User: What shape does this take?
Amino acid sequence: DLFIVNPDGTERHTGTPWVVATAQSAAVVRQAFEDKNLTPGDPANDHNDVVIDVTKSDCRNLKFDVVRVNGAWHHQIWVTIFYKGVRKISLLIAPDSHEAVGMSRTIDAVSEDVCREAAAPRPVETPAGTLMVGDLIKGDQPTVYYYGRDGKRHVFPQAKIYKSWFADFSTVKTVPSQQLATIPLGQNVRYRPGSRLIKLVSDPKVYAVAARGLLRWVTSGGVASTLFGLNWTRVVEDISDAFFNDYYVGAPVMVASDFNPLRTLVDSPSIDDDLGLPETVPPLPVGQSAVRPACYATEQFTDLLGLDSTDVQVRPLQELLQCLGFLDKGIKPTGIYGQLTAAAVRAFQQANGIAPADFTSTATLSALNRYVLTPARQTGTTNPSAPAPAASGCASSIEFTQTLSAGSSNVEVRPLQQLLQCLGYFPQDVAPTGNFGAVTEAAVKAFQSANGISPTGAVGPATRAGLNGYRG
Assistant: This one.
């Protein structure tokens, strides 16, 4: 279902009188949209406001070419893909129809045979079945989460952030609240790169959203108008100061050639990619605890542990909480239950729907014991906290041995910048200089957040271990 969204929020869908489809070839169908006038005999009723060619040539990929736009309105262009009556995915093809003219976008049609589909049916309710990476999920409360490829649930801090990625809520799956509580909380979802301009409530500066949370100040209304159209103010969204820490500020956009919204949008196909989420998790049957063998304990937790405890179970508790991301990976488990361990326990309790306390209550012990492996499952397991970078094609030529922070300029800084740039944390349009400044600090924080390390912005032992996993 290809459709446009008018500035007033009305939608024009294929398969309705607002759109005329004509075959251009065996693989190409031209969809011609009328955006606001269906009066018979009126010259304005010409189905020529937005014209898009859709190519289905290999029964998997869909290619969209915006041929022309003759209407005065600036439209969003969306596509929703169905398969066997089930809505699979909704994607924003272009945030501004005028800016999209002459540009192509190809998307993966959810690995399904779209060539055999008839006219797309409307979605129907189906059982939740199995949770897959990319699913939208909720419990018995209205909060919707994104189920990421890191096996965590990621919250949308604002409704408009959700709308920058998805057209509606029709694909949200409801899962048992008890199961939802076992899925760890991950990073906040950010605005989709290239889709919006954002500003702080307390700051008049307007920023373009680039990949991986990079914000670039658009220095003038003229530049904003060139990039996002004459009605650019309509795509400016306010963001709370509380969520500004989900982003970092890079080089400003001085001229229109410094930033390409549509290219940025096309290059950021998923929330997983934008958040830099590691690894791919297997499907999770609905109703099953989200326990991953990557994080485990070998013995049952039986003792009520609290501040100053030195019980034999404290160290395994710390190691498990560290693997799950609740205890900073830069902290060495000591076997002593201190304030940091208490804070990690509270975070674990909150994520699992347990009343937060400074001690391991009976409910906490029960939740922890979901991660206990039987002897058969322990066979062949590896150290869960060992850094294991995903296959990225990025490699470092050196071993990082020094502590690096803002102001550093030693021989390890440039290789650090080059590696972070290859991994996508350091801006592609900023040249590595060998000087550890604000941009490098932000890139290090992004790397740390993505790898479960406390985001200090300084390269310490835990960060060096993660970086050295990419040693070529």
